[in-house]
Amino acid sequence: MFTLHDNLSRRDWIRVGGIGLGGLTLPRLLKAGPQAPKAKSVIVFGLVGGPAQHETFDPKPNAPAEVRGVFGHVQSRTPGLLVGELLPRTSGLTNKLAVLRAVVTNDNAHSSSGYQMLTGVPHQPMGQESATPKPPNNWPSIGAMLRYLRPDAGRLPSSITIPEHIWNDGNFPWPGQDAGLLGSRHSPWLIPCDPAAREFQSPALTLPDEVPAMRFQGRASLLSQIERHFTKVNQSAVPEGFSVHAKKAMDLLQSTSARRAFDIGSEPVKVRERYGNSRFAQSVLLARRLVEAGVGLVQVNWTRIAGQPNQGGWDTHAKHNDSCKSLLMPIADRCFSALIEDLEVRGLLDETLVIWFGEFGRTPKFNGNGGRDHWGHCFSLALAGGGIKGGVVYGASDKHAAYPVDGVVSGADIIATIFDRLGFGTHTELQDPFGRPFALSRGKVIGAIV
């Protein structure tokens, strides 16, 4: 049974908890056999909603109009690799990309298909929106597994999610974004932010106005007293959210290196403009700064834009062509290509694995509203850097980009490949808080791209 130290009153406990768990934005939202690595870091370029394979990496120029759509294609820098015409910048960088054209979840629901892509484990049952897997089936995310295998080495956590969680309609968060059965101490840190905002400051590094610095230092001292007491009692009784997350939040608040990493305003104007001025684009730039500062994995989630077709997301059930042309593709093409070029210029591409990610693709045929619907039976992703071969196309779809005909890849295979590049084999053992072991991945490394 956890008891407070005699010298710490209940009021002191509440005071420390107020700043450690409630007074700071970040902790409040946190309620939430190595081999030689080729990659040090991973950036997940998360195109939430499901980008269409036809308009990105698997155009079908010979298909009927109701399948191929209105947009054309371009010959990319990789011989034989056609890319949608709305990705002109990316098409010039395919010599650095490995394109996967037969990724499969066989799940057409955002939540459960996304869960499979983020954890490598199919949700049971499949096809579930607002999925809520319960123990022992709440598998950890990529970022959580990395944070378990590579614990925080400094004041920055080893896995971070920006600028917000992935939500279904109704503000229902996807499963598979946290540590699940690994225990919440390993969950990636969610840092809600808008790096595109003028005078941007990360809420993770900013004290509330009502908490002056001297008061903060006093509470930090109280936190230290409580933690010293925790070493004398049963560690299983320690409130995980307090002892881990609150301490980490205080570390961040006092960290010069963390402040530098989040100081996106110090970037040259030309660099910021190259990425683009949207919230997502500037979050991608922030991800580059975070991996430079030593963060192991940064997941950048596309955010919805009110007033735009489909709220600005990739879930294009209506006005697909308008959304792709006016909003989605220009932003994605610009900041994805900027990230690859920026990492290369800085000498970071060889050690940073970047993945163009979506939970599924879109239907081969348009619906009656001019949109493409959910399609988890065959879609495309792309990887670059971090020991991934460039100029490679693996897998193939049929004439309508509807089903795979060769080189099928699962979410588990992608996760196995990511961790292989990070220096961890697929049979690397993880353990839940009760000491029960499980393997890092059920998939196989995609040998053709490594």
Structure in words:
The strands form six sheets. This protein has an eight-stranded mixed beta sheet with strand order 8-5-9-1-10-13-4-14, sandwiched between helices. Strands 2-3 form a two-stranded antiparallel sheet. By secondary structure, it is of the alpha/beta class. Helix 1 packs across helix 7. It is built from 13 helices and 18 strands. Strand 6 (167-168) and strand 7 (172-173) form a beta hairpin. It starts with 9 loop residues before the first helix and ends in an 11-residue tail after the last strand. Mean pLDDT is 86; it is low at 1-32, 207-211 and 233-238. Helix content is 31%, strand content 14%. It has helices at 10-22, 25-29, 65-68, 88-91, 110-119, 142-149, 213-230, 240-253, 256-262, 269-275, 279-292, 320-345, 411-421, and strands spanning 41-46, 73-75, 82-84, 97-103, 159-162, 167-168, 172-173, 189-190, 297-301, 352-357, 361-362, 374-375, 379-384, 392-394, 396-397, 404-406, 429-431, 437-439. The chain is globular. The protein has one domain: Alkaline Phosphatase, subunit A (3-Layer(aba) Sandwich), CATH 3.40.720.
Name the descriptors:
two-stranded antiparallel sheet; 31% helix; single chain; globular; 450 residues; eight-stranded mixed sheet; Alkaline Phosphatase, subunit A; 13 helices; alpha/beta; disordered N terminus
